[in-house]
Amino acid sequence: MGFFAKIREGLKKTRDALFGRIDSLLKSFTKIDDELFEELEELLVMGDVGMYTAEKICDELKKRVKEQGITDPKEIRHLLEDVVTEMLKGGQELDVSTKPSVILVIGVNGVGKTTTIGKLSAKFVRDGKKVILAAADTFRAAAIDQLEIWAERSGADIIKQNEGSDPAAVVFDAISAAKARGADIIIADTAGRLHNKKNLMAELAKINRIIDRELPGSAKEVLLVLDATTGQNAVNQTKEFKNAAGITGIVLTKLDGTAKGGVVLAIKEELDVPVKFIGIGEQVDDLQPFDPEEFAKALFMDDESFEELENETEAQTDNSEEDNRPATADIWDKIDAEAEAERQAELDGKSEEEIQREKQEALEKAKIEAEKEKQEQKKRAEERKEKAKSKYNWNTSQSETNTSDNDDDDWLKQWRNGEE
Questions:
Q1: How far apart are CA 260 and CA 255, in angstroms?
Q2: Is 58 in contact with 37 (CB distance < 8 Å)?
Q3: Using one digit for the tens of pLDDT, what is the confidence trace for 232-260?
Q4: Does pLDDT of 123 surpass 50?
Q5: Contact 190, 204 (CB under 8 A)
Q6: Which residues sit opposite 278 in a β-bridge?
Q7: Which of 39, 40, 303, 367 has its CA 20 to 30 A from that of 377?
Q8: Residue 260: enclosing H or E segment and its boundaries?
Q9: By the 8 A CB rule, do 25 and 300 touch?
Q10: Left, alpha or beta for 69 (phi > 0: left; psi -120 to 50: alpha)?
C-alpha cells in the first residue's frame, strides 16, 4: 500500500461519516442556494469541525462560488478541498534544526503518549539521527518501563532515574548525555496532568529553564498528544494545555479508529495550533508527518479518481528502472550490517578490529538474506504483473521488458515494523 493510500485508508471512517454525506448532499441539489449551505454547515458541525470553523468554511465557499461563477453544486466539493487545505497550512513542520534539538511531549493518560514517543524516535533513527529519550514523566506508574521498551525497539538511547525523581533532573542528565554522545535529538516524556495546572506549569517551567541554560538557542518543540476519538474534547484539551504549557504543535493519534477526524480543522482554525503528526494505525511507520494537502485529498477524493490514481501509480512502478529505488541489498547493508553492528559493538566496548569483523560478518549475512528476498520480490512482481494483465488488459512490450525486481517492498515495511 502506497503512502497516500495508507493515509486515505486511515481516514476512511471520517471520510465515510462526514465527507461521504457531504458528497451525497451536493449530488442531491440541482442549484446552489442558501439551503445548500445551511445543510452543509450542519454536516460540518456534526463532523466535529466546530461551529466557528464550519461557518468560516461556508462563508469562504460562498465567496468563491460567486467570484468563479459556479452553478453546479458538485463543483463545491473541489472548492471545499482547496479551502480545507489552505486552512490547515502553516506551522506543521517540526523544528529540529539544531544539534541537539529538544522535543517535549505531554498528554493525559491513555492518549498514546509513550507510544508516540517510541514511533517518533524510530522515525528519527531510521533517518540516521542519534536520539536520546528522557524518561521525565517520573510519577506515572510504569511510564519509565514502557519508554525503556520503546528505546530498545527503536534503537534510541534512554536516560532515566528512579520513579518519583525530579523530572527536570532527568532532562538535565539527558542534555549532558546528548552533548557527550553527539546526539541529534532529545525527546522528553514529560507530565500530562491537568488536574492541577499550577504544578504542571511549575514543572514545565523548571524543565524549560534547564534547557535554556544548558542549550541556549536550541530548537525546541512542545507537542501535545491527543486522542482523535474524543472529538471536540480534544479541542478543549488543546485550549487548556495551550494556556498551561505553551504548546507548539499537536500529535493526533487514533485517526484510523474514529469518524471525528474533522477535529483537525477545529484545532487549527479555532486555537491556531498546528497539527504536526497524525497516527493512522498501530505499526511503527503509521505515525506520519501531517501534510494538509494530502490530508484534504484523502478526505475528498472519490473512489473512481482514487482507483485511477492507484492504477497509474502501479503502472509507473512496473515500468520503472530498478535503480529508481534503493536495492534490497543496499538497504540491508546500510541499516542492518553497518548501523546495528557498529552500534552494538560500541555499546559492548569492543575494539576497532572486533567492530570491523562483526560488521563484515553482518554484511555477509545481509547479502545472503538480501538475495533471498530479491528472488521473492521478483516472484511477487511477476504475479502482480499477471494480475494487472488480467484485470486491466495490460499487455504491452514495455511492461513485459522493464518490470523491476524490486517493485514490491512489503517485506521492507514488515521488517521495519519488527515482523521479520
A1: 8
A2: yes
A3: 888 888 888 888 778 899 999 888 877 78
A4: yes
A5: yes
A6: 252, 288
A7: 303
A8: none
A9: no
A10: left
180 sits in the region (left: phi over 0; alpha: psi -120 to 50; else beta) called alpha
- In this structure, are residues 131 and 187 in contact, taking their beta carbons and an 8 Å threshold? yes
Coil, helix or strand at residue 403: coil
Buried b (16+ CB within 10 A) or exposed e, 52-69: ebbebbbebbeeebeeee
Helices (H), 155-227: 167-181, 197-214
Do β-strands 157-159 and 131-134 pair in parallel, antiparallel, or remain unpaired?
Answer: parallel
pTM above 0.85, yes or no: no
From 38-47, 163-172, 391-400, the region with the lowest mean pLDDT: 391-400
pLDDT-wise least confident of 9-18, 88-97, 154-163, 232-241: 9-18
Between the CA of residue 412 and those of 152, 264, 342, 373, 415, what are the distances in Å? 20, 31, 21, 10, 5
The DSSP string of 350-384 is --HHHHHHHHHHHHHHHHHHHHHHHHHHHHHHHHH
Identify whether the C-beta of residue 99 lies closer than 8 Å to the C-beta of residue 124.
no
